[in-house]
Amino acid sequence: MSQGSIILKLIGVPIAILLFCLGVMTILGGHITPGGGFQGGAMIAAGVILSVFIYGIDGSPIKFSHLYIDILENFGALMFIIFGLVGLFVAGSFLYNVGSDISNVVPTVIRNIFHYPDVTNAGIIPYLNIFVGLKVFVGLSAIVIAFAGFKKFSEE
What we know:
Order of helices and strands: HHHHH
Number of strands: 0
Mean pLDDT: 88
Low-confidence stretches: none
Distance between the termini: 12 Å
Radius of gyration: 19 Å
Number of domains: 1
Shape: elongated
Strand content: under 5%
Helix content: 55-70%
């Protein structure tokens, strides 16, 4: 990838940090505001993509190893499936919201474990937003990092 100008390099990291913060805020507030896991994950990935475009694949201050990307993406998918299976085993429906339990079929002990400590009581929805955001962030970032690495490899 081509290197950015001095001005871009100067403001690239602060803008990337701002995108990270906005993405985290969108993920954590996704159960009460427009947005959620996908949108927040895309915002965080935009910070990584901006960093790779400005600094190049080797000079980027935000670097992820292949193992790190693989672990994060698998963790996000695994936790999403685990939360879905908890609802399946406890209430009979995949991704049943055991934290809010509208149908009163979940035992109180399990409901209290997954109860999100918020006045809106969204149950497991904020947790699912976090896992989806993690998966989207890592997936989009991995695509751009892979393409930048392939371009660098083909230029050598």
